Every structure is written in C-alpha cells, then in structure tokens.
Amino acid sequence: MKYALIGCGRISPNHIAAAKANGLEFVALCDKEPLHMRDKILKFELGHIHTYTDYREMLEKEEPELVAIATESGEHAAIALDCIDAGCNLIIEKPIALSLEDADEIIRRAREKGVKVCANHQNRFNKSIQKIRDAVDKNRFGRMFYGTAHIRWCRDWEYYSRADWRGTWAQDGGALMNQCIHNIDLLRWMMGDEIDTVMGMTDKLNHPYIEAEDFGIALIKFKNGGYGILEGTTDIYPKNLEETLYLFGEKGTVKAGGTSVNKIEEWRFSDQLDDPEEVIRTFNENPPNVYGFGHTPLYADMIDAIKNNRDPYVTAEDGRRALELVLAVYKSAAEGMPVKLPMEKCSTMDFAGRFGERKVMK
Asked: Computed from CA positions of residues 38, 40, 42, 46, in that sequence, does the dihedral angle turn out positive or negative?
C-alpha cells in the first residue's frame, strides 16, 4: 500500500516508525522545510524516498493510497479535503480540524468519495485503555457515575519558540486543544459519548507569548446521567507531572495514569473476575514520551480497515466529538454560561483576542 506523510515536525517520527513497522510502501515525504525532510530521511534510513514542498504536487505524482497529515493543526482540514478529492485514505493528527464546519465537511466528503478517515487518537490503542474499554463494553462498571481527566503538563518558552503557530487561535488553540485533547477524547468515549451540557472556565496564567489558554477546567453532564470533570494545563513546574483518567461506577473503580495513561493504577470491580494486583502489574507500560505506543496499532487497524472496507477503530466522527467538547469548553468559558450539545458551528477563531495579544519574547 503506497503511503505518504505530510508534515515532518515533532510528531512525525511516530508516524514514520508506525508506517515502517506495518510494512507500508513509503513513497514520499512532504514539508515546507526541506531540512525537516532530510533529517527524517537520515534518521530513519528512508533511502531515496521522494520529497516535496507542495503536497498537491505530491498527490498528483505519487498517487498514494494512504496519507498521514501531521502539519500544524490549522492546516489539517484544507489538506485533508484535497487528499480526499484525490482519492486518498487518511490518518489525520489531532485535532481533526479547528472548526466543526471543517470537521463535518471532511466527514461528508469522505463518505461521498468512499475513502476512510482515521482521527489520530492513538491513546485508544494503549493496552491499559483497551483493558478499561473492555470493562466498559461488558458493563462491569454498572451505572457509570462520573469520570475525571487530568492533564498536568509543562510547556515552556523553548517549546513555543520552536514554531510560531503554536498557541495561536488560527493554527492551534491552547492547552485543551493541543496537549489535552487525547485524554478529553478518552473521557468522552468511556463515559458514553453523548453529552448534554458543558460548563467551562479557561485562562492564560503563565504564557504571555501565546494567544490561547494554558489552563482549562470543565464540568460535563452526559445524557446517560453521568458526569465528567476535566482539568488541563501546561503550567506545571518544572516538567510534566501526570496524565490520569479516573472512572467511577456503581460496581467498579479504575484509575489509569503514567506518562500517557499507559498504566492501570487502580482496578476494583465487584464481580472479581480478575486479580487487581495482576492487572496492575500487567498493564504497566512506560513509554519514552507522551505520545506512547499507540501509533503502530492505529496504523495496523487503518490498513486493515482499508483492505476490508470497514470503518477504522477511531473514525473521523470520533475526532469531531473530541473537537466539539474542547470547543464547547471554549464557548462556555467565553460566554460564562453552560453550553448545550450537540453544537453545529464553532471554531477556535471565534475566540480570537479573548486573552489579548501575545507578548513578543526574544
């Protein structure tokens, strides 16, 4: 299967490694900066792979069957729509888009063209998360009371200074949209997906050189009667502290933690179907970074979905749901009022200027 990657920045090594591990025919890299491509070619020994600075030229000349989009977030939608029109199946890095309208158009046009689109929420493939999801699917929790997602990370001036698009409303959003959306996706997925109301607060506490928030909290009421609590920030000193997911049900309590919710740290169920200590020992991965190990199985699933004409495990609709929840928090915070879901229209650009201009740092 012919594969190409658009965007060779911070997350691209995970995509390249996953593509190689799954035996894809890696035909091309595309990036605006040739140096970024040369670096990846050398690091991953990609040989005489074709390189492009214009993705449209790449699509025309290479005709890839599967394309991964790993550019700045604000470009995801436009590139995705061009790829779909060219007949390419897609893996789109999170978030799938920065507006609900763009996400809906990706979904609509993919259906029209008969191509598969996977939202790159790779943490769904964590062994710990798969174990928890199996318990949810088997109703081991009974009635789900509430879940909480905590993302307590650090992003400093060095991180933001490496790319001007980071922290901007037009190309990124803030901590919730960029750093926290994976756990936000997991919270919504585990708690039943359908949301009634969101009440949020956001602020910019410690990053004057970005436009968007570095701190956000929210209360979520799900339509099944359960509740969610969200806390996300990039203000933690001096380094990443934790990413945790708690689920509290009538008959079960679970906590996943570690670098990227790769470790089950609490496992208690009234049915006593498994030994809690054994579960905690077994589901205890330690990834080298916050991206975890999920890209390789996500790619494997997407390849199988294309070959067998089925939906991928993580669909474009799943990507839209995660995006919608972040935008609902933004909207509630900006208006000081609860927001009802579903939402039809909303974009990060609706909140441009909310925290004033970003301070230029040297």
From this structure: negative
For domain 2-122+295-314, which architecture applies? 3-Layer(aba) Sandwich (3.40)
CB 185: neighbour CB atoms within 10 A?
25
Task: Measure the CA–CA gap between 107 and 96, rounded to whole angstroms.
Answer: 10
Neighbours of 222 (CB within 10 A): 21
- List the one residue out of 179, 153, 154 whose CA is nearest residue 166: 179
Cis peptide upstream of residue 238 (ω within 30 degrees of 0) = yes
CATH topology of domain 124-289+321-351: Dihydrodipicolinate Reductase; domain 2 (3.30.360)
Q: Where in the chain is the domain with CATH 3.30.360.10?
A: 124-289+321-351
Q: Report CA-CA distances (Å) from 287 to 108, 156, 307.
A: 36, 22, 30
Which pLDDT value is given to residue 362? Answer: 57
Q: How is residue 260 written in tokens?
A: 């990227």
pLDDT at 289: 67
Q: Is residue 3 helix, strand or coil?
A: strand
Distance CA 301, CA 10 (A): 23
115 within 8 A of 90, measured Cβ to Cβ: yes
Alpha-carbon distance of 232 to 241, in angstroms, equals: 12
Instruction: Decide if 218 contacts 201 (C-beta within 8 A).
Output: yes
Amino acid at 168: T
Rounded mean pLDDT for each run of 10 residues along the chain, 362 residues in total: 97 96 97 96 94 98 98 98 98 98 98 98 96 98 98 96 95 98 98 97 97 98 98 97 97 94 97 97 82 89 98 98 98 98 98 89 62
Per the CB < 8 A criterion, the answer to whether 298 and 118 are in contact is: yes
Cis peptide leading into residue 95 (ω within 30°): yes
Distance CA 50, CA 333 (A): 46
Q: How far apart are CA 85 and CA 88, in angstroms?
A: 7
Q: Where are the domain boundaries for CATH 3.40.50.720 in the chain?
A: 2-122+295-314
Angle at 211 between CA 355 and CA 182, to 5 degrees: 110
pLDDT of residue 208: 96
